[in-house]
Amino acid sequence: MATINENYLKLKAGYLFPEIGRRVREFAQANPEKEIIRMGIGDVTQPLTPTVIKAFHEGVEEMGNISTFKGYGPEQGYDFLREAIAKNDYQSRGVHISADEIFVSDGSKCDTGNIQEVFGSNNKIAICDPVYPVYADTTVMSGKTGNCGSNGYFEGIIYMPCNEQNGFLPELPQERPDLIFLCFPNNPTGTVATKEYLKTWVDYAIQNHCIIFYDAAYEAFITDPAIPHSIFEIKGAKNVAIEFRSFSKTAGFTGTRCAFTVIPEELMAFDAAGKPHRVKPLWMRRHTTKFNGVSYPVQKAAAAIYSEEGAKEVKEVINYYLENARIMLESLTEMGFKVFGGINAPYVWVKTKNGLTSWQFFDLLLNESNVVGTPGSGFGPAGEGYFRFSAFAERENVVKAMERLRRM
Ligand SMILES: *Cc1c(COP(=O)(O)O)cnc(C)c1O
After folding, report:
1. 377-395: per-residue pLDDT in tens?
2. Which atom of ligand 1 lies at the shortest distance from residue 253's CA?
3. Which of ligand 1's atoms lies nearest the C-alpha of 111?
4. In CATH, what is the architecture of 12-47+309-407?
């Protein structure tokens, strides 16, 4: 008799985006004359840049020519891309990461979900609330939790509330975790971590033999020179952290698919007898067994963002989104909202007024100004009473949406 992984039954239905879709559809059907502005999804809107497209085309041409055709590539990525990443994303910032500590993949979603496979099922996981839902859901799938309580929390996960009091920066947990997910700049709150703040986590992880999973998917949006782009900018982090990066938000690759994970040579975890083992070879084993590499033209396209012209173009697109965020931040503040994020991040995190719940605010916004955002409660119980606006939108729509909100 075939049985299922019953951990899947513990998961809550993928509720947030389907529910947003349902409410927007119903509204559109009832009000066909209304023009709806969508600022709800965390997906980019600007196309791939010319330099990326040129490299992408060249890669495709090479695949059609017998002298340059490529079959399977190295599972962990072509050297030209891994070296470009090591040099431009790390060494240029004084961080000693080498190409062979970099694993190229088809997405950070997969990597942040799959990483738990090389760690024991008895690990305690700490997760921020609210946050990107992948960390909690994959923890549930891997069998490390009990059921979900009526408070929205899974038994067995250490939740770290992020709220106005702590500036949306989680405090060190009371109960000691083994594995800790952190995400900065944060989705959904748009907050960033200073070096001093990250150092408290690195020091904690060193003292307590924890490993930090650091999701830096939005590092390209950091403009403040004092804010670290990588956790490896913190002394000692190479002993206790894994970093996830993606070309998705950096260069518009959400539909093209390319990302990478950095596992330092010196990172160790322990067996049941307390003997340390290097984590990198375990991930290498997993990656080469279960993954056959990102397609060559895509890796070539990704590497193009490190050329002088490519870097300039990508930065222009990032600045376009950041200007959208600035407009929203300024407008919403003028309207008397309490607003967070939106400076070194593409997300603006807004406190609803008059004690409205996230979904009440969603309905109000949809009905009165025909603007769609994302209810904060969809990212975790502590997100209740907040709302996320995404800067991934056309400028004229951002301006129009803010005008409509002002009139509301
Ligand atoms: C968008 C996003 C990613 C990127 O995922 P990909 O699979 O690389 O597209 C990773 N982490 C967070 C928090 C994100 O919002």
Report:
1. 999 999 999 999 999 999 9
2. 9
3. 7
4. Alpha-Beta Complex (3.90)
Q: Which sign, positive or negative, has the C-alpha torsion 133, 139, 145, 146? A: positive
Q: Which residue's CA is the closest to the ligand 1 atom numbered 2?
A: 217
> Residue with structure tokens 């020091």?
203
pLDDT digits (tens, 9 = 90+) for 162-217: 999 999 999 999 999 999 999 999 999 999 999 999 999 999 999 999 999 999 99
Is residue 216 within 8 A of residue 244, CB to CB? The reply is yes
How is domain 53-307 classified at the CATH fold level? Answer: Aspartate Aminotransferase; domain 2 (3.40.640)
CB 183 within 8 A of CB 132: yes
Q: How far is the CA of 388 from the centre of ligand 1 (A)?
A: 16
Pocket of ligand 1 (CB under 6 A): 42, 107-109, 132, 183, 187, 215, 217, 246, 248-249, 254, 259
Question: What are the residue ranges spanned by the domains of the chain?
Answer: 12-47+309-407, 53-307
pLDDT digits (tens, 9 = 90+) for 325-361: 999 999 999 999 999 999 999 999 999 999 999 999 9
Residues 66-82, mean pLDDT to the nearest whole number: 98
